[in-house]
Amino acid sequence: MKPLVLVAHGSRDPRAARSTWALTRAVGAARTGSAVAAAFLDFAGPRLPAALAEVAQPAVTVVPLLLTAAYHGRVDVPGEVAKAPAGTGVALAEVLGPVAGPAADAGALDLVVRALRRRLGEALDGAPQPDGVVLLAAGTRVVPALATVDLVAAALGAALGVPCRPGYASGSGPAVTEAVASLRAEGAGRIAAAAYFLAPGLLYDRVAGQAREAGAVAVAPPLDDAPEIVELVLLRADRAVARAA
Question: Could you tell me the pTM of the whole model?
Answer without folding.
Answer: 0.95
